[in-house]
Amino acid sequence: MNSSIQIVKAAIPAGWKRNLRALFFSPMRTLDLVTNYLYDMKRYLKYSSTLQFFDSETQLRSWIDADAHKLEKGLALAAPRPGFGKGVAERLVREIDLYRANHGMSLSLETAVSVLDSYMTFTC
Questions:
Q1: What is the C-alpha to C-alpha distance for residues 55 and 10, in angstroms, rounded to an integer?
Q2: What is the reported pLDDT for 46?
């Protein structure tokens, strides 16, 4: 038993030992760490686009602009790969439909529809 503990201790780098000791022997620090992690995770999920909730007109319009830009960039390449951006184009169509149903037309929508038209011309 003693030799197995020695092997484990030898396998852990010296810098890690100090950090592990600090975590295990300081419950308040561990609680702070977990609390800070949960706080950061909550803010990240709220303000990032990870979950892709379209809570506002501005957020949906920004997704439309970003997806339209992805297709534009692909079309601007010297030799675009056939079939590139299919998933982005399908998502863009859904986003445009959602935006139009809830907010009407806008300049971003007109631009996105124009990009989709160019994309369809390229792929067909």
A1: 52
A2: 81
For the four alpha carbons of 96, 99, 105 and 108, in that order, the dihedral sign comes to negative
| Residue 109 near residue 99, CB atoms below 8 Å | yes
Q: Residue 2 is encoded by which pair of tokens?
A: 């003693």
- For the chain, which ranges sit under pLDDT 50? none
45 Cβ contact partners less than 8 Å away, ≥ 6 residues apart: 51
Cα(88)–Cα(76) distance, integer angstroms: 16
Q: In 3D, which of 52, 74, 75 has the Cα closest to residue 62? A: 52
81-109 pLDDT, tens digit per residue, is 888 999 999 999 999 999 999 999 888 89
Q: Which residue shows structure tokens 């706080």?
A: 39
Residue pointed to by tokens 């852990």: 12
